[in-house]
Specification:
Shape: globular
Oligomer: single chain
CATH class of the largest domain: Mainly Alpha
CATH superfamily of the largest domain: MetI-like
Strand content: under 5%
Distance between the termini: 6 Å
Order of helices and strands: HHHHHHHHHHHH
Helix content: over 70%
Radius of gyration: 24 Å
Length: 273
């Protein structure tokens, strides 16, 4: 188990790195470079806004002076991400489990799965938009198309890697197929599935933001703020959206890890956490 002192030390290092990074960023965007060219900075604040300006814009975007606050846009992005993530892991786990335990079905569907997974997701955005429009459903479908395959391949491999001796022992003790599935195969496969959840939630967030780029105002969300900021050359608002997206990604990843640790606490590697 990690000691409290060790955790505090880690957090102190993280905070120190963040403070130094932001301080250097603020300083370098505020001093001019050693050059005779007027208006030339070490880091041009026009393209990479100063942290102090970003903080001011963040406060403005949380006020009632804007039609859509940063919290409303963040909520839209989070909602789409979670729905796409949940649908993706549910269908990916079910498909991976079925195909992983059936060689015949796996051979039948293998070329179709490989073909669809080979398609760049960004290339599917126009088609998904044509079918589902610019709203919530299109963003969910795009996130699902990414999460499904990440979870599917991990679950598929996990279902095929179940120790055969455990299955034989369960049958020897009189367990039926349903009991073996519930008590042996699914628990053994879950460790493989959970290993894919942290990257899956991050990629789901990426998929939703890409969908918001295309969806414009009707899609809402932080992706809309980013693309709107690009159109107005407003780097401060763009950086606000990026910082909020980073915070959302961190919180989601930490949440997945906590759930993973609780559900798989019977495994030795999780008992050390």
């Amino acid at each position: 188990m990690k000691t409290k002192d060790g955790r505090w030390s880690v957090w102190a290092w993280r905070l120190g790195i963040l403070v130094v990074f932001l301080g250097a960023w603020e300083y370098l965007t505020g001093i001019k470079a050693i050059s005779k060219t007027p208006g030339l900075y070490w880091i041009d604040p026009f393209f990479i806004s100063r942290p102090s300006v970003i903080a001011q814009r963040f406060l403005y975007l949380t006020s009632d002076k804007v039609r859509l606050t940063i919290w409303q846009m963040a909520l839209s992005t989070i909602q789409s991400t979670l729905w796409g993530f949940l649908v993706g892991i549910t269908t990916g786990f079910a498909a991976g489990l079925v195909l992983g335990r059936s060689d015949r079905i796996a051979r039948i569907f293998d070329p179709f799965i490989v073909a669809f997974n080979s398609l760049p997701r960004i290339a599917l955005v126009p088609l998904i938009t044509m079918i589902f429009g610019f709203g919530l459903l299109a963003k969910i479908v795009l996130a699902w198309s990414i999460v499904f395959f990440i979870v599917f391949f991990n679950t598929f491999q996990g279902a095929r890697s179940v120790d055969a001796d455990l299955i034989h022992s369960a049958r020897f003790l009189g367990a039926g197929d349903g009991q073996i599935m519930r008590t042996v195969i699914v628990p053994s496969t879950l460790a493989w599935t959970f290993a894919s959840l942290t990257p899956s939630i991050s990629f789901a967030l990426i998929g939703v933001v890409v969908g918001e780029f295309i969806g414009g105002e009707s899609g809402g969300g932080l992706g809309y703020l980013i693309i709107q900021s690009l159109g107005t050359l407003n780097s401060a608002d763009m950086m606000v959206a990026l910082f909020v997206l980073g915070a959302i990604g961190i919180v989601m990843a930490l949440g997945i890890r906590q759930i993973e640790t609780r559900l798989l606490r019977w495994r030795p590697e999780y008992q050390k956490r």
